[in-house]
Amino acid sequence: MPPTPAAEPATRLDPRFSDPRAAAAPWSDAVALLEAAEVFWLTTVRPDARPHVTPLIAVWHDGALHFCTGPAERKARNLRDNRSVVLTTGGNTLGEGSDLVVEGEAERVTDTGTLRALAAAYAGKYGPAWTFGVGDGVFVGDGGEALVFRVAPRTAFGFTKGDAFGQTRWRFPR
After folding, report:
1. Domain spans of the chain, in order of start
2. How far is CA 64 from CA 6, 40, 88, 105, 149, in A?
3. Cβ contacts of residue 73 below 8 Å, gap of 6+?
4. Which part of the chain is the Pyridoxamine 5'-phosphate oxidase N-terminal domain (predicted)?
5. Model pTM score
6. Phi/psi zone of residue 62: left (φ > 0), alpha (ψ -120 to 50 degrees), beta?
7. How far apart are CA 104 and CA 108, in angstroms?
8. For all residues of the chain together, what is the average pLDDT?
9. Element of type H or E holding 27
């Protein structure tokens, strides 16, 4: 499994897209939003290079976002050829809140102990409707088997909305 990213990545407020009163958001604020967010949008790349975007649920665990998908779904098929992904979350209003964009590489999670911890995280966050068993390197649920992926941030962007709007970039060491 890839190492957990540093707790405090290099942080920079982009003045081109920020109010003069804005300050760079700390990574801990972004993590709190990632932990609380219920819906994420996953962008993958199709074999013909067209983007594919789909909503899904995800959990923040051990320094990374985790999501699951059926092995025959478009996103799983896309990830076989290109592991580069973007996960986004936030609100659809301009005047308040924050939006987050996390860029990284999707890595399969197959370790039984990690899968058990992630299954508990899903049930804890989303309730009993999202209870998974753990099979041979996969989640097992009512819909069959699901592949589990880990996305450690490579770069993340935070967009603070409201009067002192700002764009923060977090860069993680490779």
Report:
1. 10-171
2. 11, 14, 13, 11, 10
3. none
4. 31-127
5. 0.93
6. left
7. 13
8. 94
9. helix 27-36
Q: How far apart are the C-alpha atoms of 127 and 117, rounded to whole Å?
A: 15
List, in sequence order, every residue forming a beta bridge with 171; answer none if it has no partner.
10, 155
Please identify which residue in the block is written with the tokens 């050829």.
Answer: 81
Whole-number Cα distances in Å, 142 to 22, 114, 131: 46, 20, 9
Residue 114 pLDDT more than 90?
Answer: yes
Residue with tokens 């699901």: 146
> What residues contact 52, with CB distance under 8 A and at least 6 apart?
43, 44, 45, 46, 74, 75, 78
Direct distance between the N- and C-terminal alpha carbons of the chain, in angstroms, rounded to an integer: 14
Give the closest residue to 157 by CA, choosing from 55, 37, 9, 58. Answer: 9
* In contact, 156 and 30? CB cutoff 8 Å: yes
**Mean pLDDT of all residues in 23-40:** 96
Out of 3.30.9.30, 3.40.190.150, 1.10.10.60, 2.30.110.10, the CATH code matching 10-171 is 2.30.110.10
Closest CA to 57 of 67, 72, 71: 67
